[in-house]
Design a protein that fits this description.
This protein has 9 helices and 6 strands. It is of the alpha/beta class and 264 residues long. Helix 2 runs parallel beside helix 9. Bound molecules: 3-methylbut-3-enyl trihydrogen diphosphate (2 copies) and magnesium ion (MG).
């Protein structure tokens, strides 16, 4: 990219420009997945209720979505609520659901203006009806967008997704529409929530935790993992740019011995 292009994508912050200048725009990750973590700790360190951490985290989502769209990434998927997160206190869960509704309501216009196609990865039907309605509206009203595919992973876990895939394939096999002998990786992939997305090249986790917490278990088989101590509410454009710079220094081998590019 030329300096002028960098400026156009990144804006006027000098540190961000310097980081962006290190990015090879021909080898961008196609799909970035993020485990957003640390909202509770961020709030605790400020003597605030956990929900304030989630509220602040919405700003980070906004910043990252905008940056991903400007960079021209194909897909961005962020883990917002796991099937295990139902175990949290009811006021935290309902607070999170309220934030979700608010997010779609406030951001829909911006998503459309930026040609972003919104989607949900996970059990949409298991969410409260009013939240479902809002999400479905977001999905429908951005369905014609051709830019960044931005998905929220909601009521999602990798194990429940794979269990569901196995069940559906078994039902089809029993009905005779799938021959068990023909079951292969491609068929399984077509049954995943992410069937329409390339597999993640880069998996980011915030708040220093070195685990995948049941996120996209099948899909991240060869993702490069990037962990930062930054808590999610503090995560901004410059962190995403740095993650991409670091990603491009990795040697992806997919089990072979020669270096492969970041492209799938
Ligand atoms: C991530 O932050 C947001 C969700 C899982 C919904 P946490 O709420 O897990 O924050 P910590 O890990 O307790 O700091
Ligand atoms: C992972 O964060 C899930 C989401 C980001 C939605 P958690 O905070 O729920 O994961 P653990 O409990 O640290 O593994
Ligand atoms: Mg957490």
């Amino acid at each position: 990219m030329t300096r002028a292009q960098v400026l156009e994508v990144i804006g006027s912050d000098r540190d961000e420009q310097a980081t962006a200048a290190l990015i090879d725009f021909d080898r961008l990750p196609r799909h970035v997945a993020i485990i957003m973590d640390g909202n509770g700790r961020w709030a605790k360190s400020r003597f605030l209720p956990r929900l304030e951490g989630h509220r602040a985290g919405v700003e980070s989502v906004r910043s990252v979505v905008e940056t991903a769209a400007r960079l021209g990434l194909e897909a961005l998927t962020v883990y917002a609520f796991s099937t295990e997160n139902w175990k949290r206190p009811t006021d935290e869960v309902s607070g999170l659901m309220g934030l979700l509704k608010l997010y779609i309501r406030r951001e829909l216009r911006t998503l459309q203006d930026n040609n972003i196609r919104f989607g949900v990865v996970g059990g949409l039907d298991g969410l409260p009806k009013d939240v479902q309605d809002e999400l479905r509206r977001g999905i429908a009203e951005t369905s014609q967008m051709t830019g960044l595919k931005f998905s929220l992973a909601l009521n999602y876990s990798g194990r429940s997704e794979l269990t569901d895939v196995v069940r559906r394939i078994a039902v089809a096999a029993k009905a005779g529409t799938i021959d068990p002998e023909t079951i292969d990786e491609a068929l399984i992939e077509r049954h995943l929530f992410t069937a329409h997305l390339p597999e993640p090249d880069l998996l980011i986790r915030t708040s220093g935790e070195m685990r995948v917490s049941n996120f996209l278990l099948w899909q991240i088989a060869y993702a490069e993992i990037w962990v930062t101590d930054v808590l999610w509410p503090d995560f901004r454009r410059r962190h995403l740019l740095q993650a991409i710079v670091d990603f491009q220094k990795r040697e992806r081998r997919y089990g072979g011995i020669t270096s492969a590019t970041g492209k799938a």
